[in-house]
Amino acid sequence: MARSAALRYYILTRLMLAPLMVWTITTVVFLLLRATPGDPVDALLGARAPAAAKDQLRSQLGLDQPLGLQYLHYLGNLLKLDLGTSLATQGQTVWQIIQAHFPATLELAFCGMVVAVAVGVTVGALAASRPNSALDAGGRLFGIITYAIPMYWFGMILQMVFAVQLGWFPIATRYPLQATPPQGPTGLYLLDSLLAFDLGSFTTALYYLALPSLTLGLLISGVFERMVRVNLKQTLASDYVEAARCRGIAERRIVLVHALRNALIPVITILGMTFASMLGGAVLTEVTFSWPGLANRLYEAISQRDYPVVQGLMVFFGLIVALISIAIDICNAYIDPRIRY
After folding, report:
1. Which of 74, 38, 111 is nearest to 315 (CA)?
2. Is there a single domain that holds both residue 165 and residue 313?
């Protein structure tokens, strides 16, 4: 009963800290945007526009007000769940931008995560099962390379080899321009095509998704490779594994059934946060592949000094990270009684 009360207190504390995290992100983004060089009015009208027209637009957008008033006005809108309206695309709200572009980012992040976990766990397990061997050295080298390679450079290399030279994959876009994409309630082409039992649309969407998700997944897989390799080595040296070996259990079964399951516990812990970071950190992948996702839209908004869109999308991404972080902490606290509240 005492642990149940402590768990409820822990959950309540984490939920109370979530708005503070989102507010901090909002404040930092608000101040950084206004400290960076460039004027959104110049981005909209051009540097050579008449001064009177610039002043009129600046007054219309509220950019002529003191910084404190702009900040209070923005916080007031956030409390009403109003993320603002784009300056570059007049009349389009940030919520409409999220609705239009977030499914593409979610689909890319999910498929990239599948690739990252499959490759990272496999390479890490193989490296840990053969300590101090060429396979172990290759696993360590794989983790270093995937961590060090710039994502945009790796994406362009894959495009040049597999799209331009070999012609195996398309260079950009999410679906053929001349074809009608799958229509459905989620906006996720893979899921909507499955719900409509349209195998052709599913394979087409997966074909266009393959190269971007491989780029994102392979570079993220090094995180899981290092985690699995280190934890599996420690697990294989534990007493219960030695006892299993003494009982004559095959080494393959020891690794896959006994040791790997325990070594994957910390991997599951970082899985959620890695996925959350992929949702907001896929900017370079989306820009490289012209992927019509929310991260690419954020990059465009930064280039255009579109303050409301940048602030709104950062709040949205911050809220996702906060919710996933809370969910992971609650799951860990519920599963592992050793966690202190």
Report:
1. 74
2. yes
How does pLDDT run across 194-203, given as a tens digit for each residue? 888 889 889 9
Structural element, H or E, at residue 185? none
Q: Is residue 212 part of a domain?
A: yes
Into how many domains does the chain fold?
2
Using CA atoms, how far apart are residues 217 and 215, in angstroms rounded to an integer?
6
Structural domain span for residue 37: 19-79
**Placement of tokens 């012209």 in the chain:** 290
User: 11 in a domain, yes or no?
Assistant: no
pLDDT in tens, 69-126: 888 888 888 888 888 888 777 778 889 898 888 898 888 888 988 898 889 888 888 8
Q: Does 58 lie in the same domain as 121?
A: no
Residues 201 and 322 in one domain: yes
238-265: burial string, b at 16+ Cβ within 10 Å, e else: eeebeebeeeeeeeeebbeebbbeebbe
For residue 223, which of 112, 324, 314 has the smallest C-alpha distance? 112
Residues 187, 100: Cα–Cα separation, whole Å: 8
CA 306, 311, 315: angle at the middle one, nearest 5?
A: 150
Query: CA–CA separation, 259 vs 248, rounded Å?
Result: 15
Shared domain check, 185 and 68: no
Examine the domain organization and report whether 62 and 200 are in the same domain: no
Nearest to 236 by CA among 322, 129, 111: 129
Separation CA 15–CA 17 (nearest Å):
5
